[in-house]
Amino acid sequence: MKNIRKRNRRRPERLLEAERRRDNGVTRITHRDEGELDFLRRRALYSAFVVIFFFAILVARLWYLQVQQGPEYSRLADSNRVRYVEVAAPRGNILDSRGREIVTNRPSFNVVWVREDNRLNDALLKKMARILGQDVSDLLARIRKMANTPGHIPVRLAEDIDWETVAYIENNRMDLPGIKIEVVPVRVYHYGNLASHLIGYLGEISEKELKNSRPGVYRGGDLVGKMGLERLREKDLRGEKGRNYMEVNALGYEQKYLKGVEPLPGNDLQLTIDMDLQRVAEETMAAGDKAGAVVAVDVNSGRLLVAASAPALHIDEFVGGISRKAWKAMLENPYHPLINKIVQGQYPPGSTYKLVTATAGLAEGVITPDSIIYCPGYYRFGNRTYRCWKHSGHGAVKLKRALAESCDVYFYQVGQRLGVDRLAKYAHLFGLGRKTGIEMEHEKPGLIPTAAWKRKRFGKPWQEGETLSVAIGQGFDLVTPIQLAMMTATVANGGTLYKPGLVETVRDPDGRVIEQFKPHVVDRLVGQGRNLQLVRQGLIDAVNGRHGTGRRARLKDLGITVAGKTGTAQVVRLKQYRHLKDKDIPYKYRDHAWFTCFAPAENPEIAVTVLVEHGLHGGSSAAPVARAVLEKYFRDRGYGADDINVTILRSSGAGTTRAAAAAGSRTGRGANRRRQ
Amino acid sequence: MLRFDRRLIHHFDWVMLLMLLLVAGMALANLYSSTWNGGNTASPVFFKQLYLYILGTAFILVLVSVDYKELENLGYLMYAAVLLLLLYTDFFVHSIAGTQRWINLGVFHLQPSEPAKLVLVLVLASCYSRTEAPDGYRIRDLIKPGILTAIPFVLIMIQPDLGTALMLGILFVSMTVFVRLRWSTLTILGGAGLACAVIGWKFLLKDYQRRRIETFLNPEGDPMNHGYQIMQSKIAVGSGQMFGKGFMEGTQGHLHFLPERHTDFAFSVWAEEWGFAGALFFLGCYFFMLLWGINIAMTARDKFGVLLAFGLVMLIFWQAVINLFMIMGFLPVVGIPLPLFSYGGSSLLTTLFAIGILMNIRMRRYQTQK
Fold first, then answer.
1. Residue-wise pLDDT tens digits, A297-333
2. Do B134 and A59 touch (CB under 8 A)?
3. Architecture (CATH level 2) of domain A275-314+331-640
4. Please, which residues bridge with residue A599 across strands?
5. Which residues does chain B have within 8 Å of residue A80's beta carbon, measured at their own beta carbons?
6. Distance in Å from the first CA to the final CA of chain A
C-alpha cells in the first residue's frame, strides 16, 4: 500500500508531462489516435465472432457427446464402475439307483489374487508363497497362465486350503492387498474310486474347451467334467453361476454392493447303477488282482446295474490336474487303468460267441436241437486240422451238451453250414459289431467279419476255413464287454436288444424330474423265442451240468439257477506257450477269460458279463466274479432266507442309510464265509 | 487517489461481478464434489480454494480504485518480477514429476507461469498502445513485443511446460493480429510460425510431449496413459447425458476413473453431474462473461484500455477453449486449466486479477484524460 501511495504522489507531474506532449501537435495526433481507437474497437467487435464461433463448436460437441452419444458413454461408464464377481454354482449330485449319494459337494477355500486391485509386487508374492507353502515360481506360473484374461478375473493361487490358512489370510487382509478367499464347492466322492470310469472326474477347463463353449458360461480356471458322466452330462450338472455386482473404483476396490444373482445348482443325476453291486464287482476284481470289466444289466430294460472297469482310476490323483509322473505310471501300467474296458476293450468273444452260432443255426434251420454232431477232438477242413479244446473229444453231441461243454467241433460245423455272412447277420441282431450307444466315451464298435468286409479291408476273398474260427469266437471277431452283456440280456429276455442305460432320472434343484429313463429297444429277434429257450437250456447246463464249464457261478444255496457261458479269448496263437503251465506263461500272452450269465434262469432278471484280461480260463477266473455280483443281487432281494440279518434289513425298507447297508453287506459276507 | 470519485461507484461493473460470482459458485460446488473424500466436511483443498476466492475477490475490489493507467508502466515492473521468478523456478527448484513449475511459499505453491500469461498481456498492451503505426505494423515494429514474448516462452519451455508456453504464443499472436498489421508482415509471420512448428516438433519437444500429441492423434495406441485420460473424460462428459447424474453422484469422478478431476478435468465432473443442461448453463455464463469483456474492450476509453481488455479476454478465452477442447477430446492433454473453474491458486489469482482489471477499465470508460 505504501508503494502505491508513493506512486500516486508522483502521478500529477507525470500527467502534466503527458498533457504537455499532447499539446505539441494537438489536432493531427488526436485525429490519428481516434482513428486507431475506432479501428481497435471494431476489431474487438470482430473478436466477439471468434468467441461465438468457438462456443458454438463447444455446444455442438457437448450435444454430440452427452445427448447423441450419451447412452453409449453411460454404458461405458457402467462397465468402468460395475464389476461382477462370479459365484460358482454347486454342481449337481450323482446318486445311485437307490438314492445313495455317490458324488456331492462341499465348500472349499481358494486363494485368489485380483490383479486389478493390486499390481504384482515381489514382496506380496514372496509373502503369499510363504503363507501357502509354495514356490514363487509356481505362483508365477499360475499368474502367467491367466495373462490373457481381463484383470478383474481373479487368478487362483491355491485351491482348497485348510482352515488355519484361511483364518491367517483373513486376519492379515490389510497387508495382502488384492488377495481374497474364494469359496468354491468341490466334489466329494462318497464311494472313493468306485465306478470311477463311469463317473469320471473334473479338471480345469482347457483353452480349447473354453473357446468352444458358449461365451459367458465358463471362464479360465473353471472346473469341468473331463471324463465319464461328469463330462457327458456337463450341461446337466454344471448349473448356472451366480453373479454379485459390485461398484468398484478406478483402483478396483469394491465400493458398494449393487445387486446379486444367486447361482442355480446343477441337476442331480440318479444312476441305474446299484453301488452295492458295483462295490462287490470292483472289490472282487481287486481282491483277485484282476484287470478287466464287469457289467451287470437289467435284462428287461437295459438298465446297467454294474459298470466296472478294473483296475479303478484313482480319482484323487486327477483332482487339480494330474502330475506327469502319475500319468506316465498309469500309461505304463500293464493293467491299463486309463482304459475303460467296458466300452474301449475289444476282445475276441471266444466261446461266448457260441450263443450267436447256436441261435443262428437254429433260426436258419441248419441244425435242430436234436442234430447230432460227432466230436473226435478235432475237425479236419481242407488241409488243416481244427482242434476242439477237449483233445480227447466229446463224442456224439447235441446242441444242449455242445453249449454246456462248449464243444468246438460242433460249432465248427454249424458255422460251416451257415457261412460267415449268415453268422454275422445274427451277431448284428445281438448288437455285436456296432456301438451300443451307452453314455460312455470312446466306445469301440468291435468287429464282426463278413465276406464283403474282408474283400474291402484286405482285398482278398473270404476263406471258408476262417468261418470255423469265427464260429467259435476267434479269428477276426472282436467284442466289448458291454456288447456281450447286452447280447446275454437279449438271450435272457427272449430276443429284445436294449440300449444300455446309465441315467435313471435327472432332477432339477427343485426336485422336478426333467429326464426319466425309458427302455430303448434297438433290435428284436422276431420269432426266435423257442430257439432262444433252447440256447438258454444249454447255458443252464453249462453252469449246473456235471461237466459244465461254468460251475463256479452256481448259486445253489440261494435257490437261484444261473445260466451262463464261459469263454476264452486267445491272445496269441504261439504254440510255444500252448504246452506251458498257466503260471509260466508271461502275463501279457495269457488268454482273456470271459464269463457271461443271467439269472434266475427260468425268469431272468439280471445278466452279468465278466471279462478278466489274461485271466486264462473263464470258468475259474471270471465266473466267481459274476457269482459274487449275483449273490449280492439276490441276497439284497431276500434270497438266502437263513441269513436273518439280511431279512431284517430288507423288512426295514430299502434305501436305508449307507451305514446300515454297509453293515448288511458285511454280515452277508460273513454268513457266506461260514457256509463255505 | 484515496479521495473517492463517487462516479466510480456509480459506474462500478456489477455485471462482471455477478458473472464472476455465478461462475465462482459453480466452480466451488464442483470442487466440493470432486474432492469430497467421504468425510463429513469438505476437503482441505476446497477450503483453500474458497479462501483464495474470497481473498482474491476482496483484493480486486480494492484494486479497482487504482486507475488501470498505472499498469502501462507498472506492467514492465511486474513483468521483470515474473521473469525473475521463472528464472528461479527453472534453475533452483527441485523438479516435481520431471517438471519444475512451482515455488513453495509455505502455505501456497506459486506457479510463476500463471502470472506470466497476465504480465505478458500487460506489457504487450502497453507496448502496442505506445507504438504508432498508421499504415500497419512492419516486422521491425514487432521485434520488441516478440522479444517480450520470447523470454518467458523460453523460460517456461525449459520447465518444461509446453501448454503454458504455447499459451503465451497464442496470446502474442492474438494481440498482434488484433492491431493493424501489414499484409507483408502477416505473410512473413505465418511462414515463420509454420517453420517454427516443424522445427519445434523435430528438435525441441521432449519425448513425452511428442507422445502426448501422437496419442491424441491415435488414442487406441496408448490406452492406459493420455489416451486413457481423454477417453475417461469423454466417458464422464457423455455419461452425464441430458440432465446429469446429480450433484455428488458422478461415478467417473467419485470412483477416480477421471484423472486430474479437480484441476484440468474439473469440467468433466461438472458435465457428468449436471448433464447437458448444466454444462450449457455454465458455458452460457462463461460465454456471457467473455462477451462482456469484449464489450469492455469496445467501450474502453483509450487504446491501452482496448488492447488490455482484449488481451485479458483472450487470456481467459483461449485457456477455456483449449481446456474444454481437451476435455471433449478435440485436443491432446496439455496442462491448461479452465480459468476460475479448475483448482489451482496461481491460476485463480491470476484470473481474478485479470477480471479486476477488466472491471477497472469498465468503470473508467467515461473518464477522459485531461
1. 999 999 999 999 988 888 877 766 677 888 888 888 8
2. no
3. 3-Layer(aba) Sandwich (3.40)
4. A606
5. 232, 235, 251-252, 255, 257
6. 124
